[in-house]
Amino acid sequence: MTDQRHPRIPSCTYRLQFNRWFTFAQAREIVPYLDALGVSDTYASPYFQAGVESLHGYDITDHNKINPVIGSREEYDSWVAELHAHSMGQLLDFVTWESPSR
Known about the structure:
Oligomer: single chain
Largest sheet: 3 strands, parallel
Number of helices: 2
Structural class: alpha/beta
């Protein structure tokens, strides 16, 4: 018999709007509070490299880089570690763009 894992199904999400005024470090700080509320997963706005003044993150300029105004890779990893320490996960919202010439 094999040990098959079932996909994680969020039971209660909480939306996080990342931008220069709400960073990975701040998100990490509220994880215990969200856990106490019964949140199973965070629903994160895009946190990839975006326009310099972006407040929403949907204007992604590089899907391979974390937006530095939101935090460093280390701060991201620390936030994710805090989520995992509370048996929580994350959903990430983002957009892709396709050239209209296709």
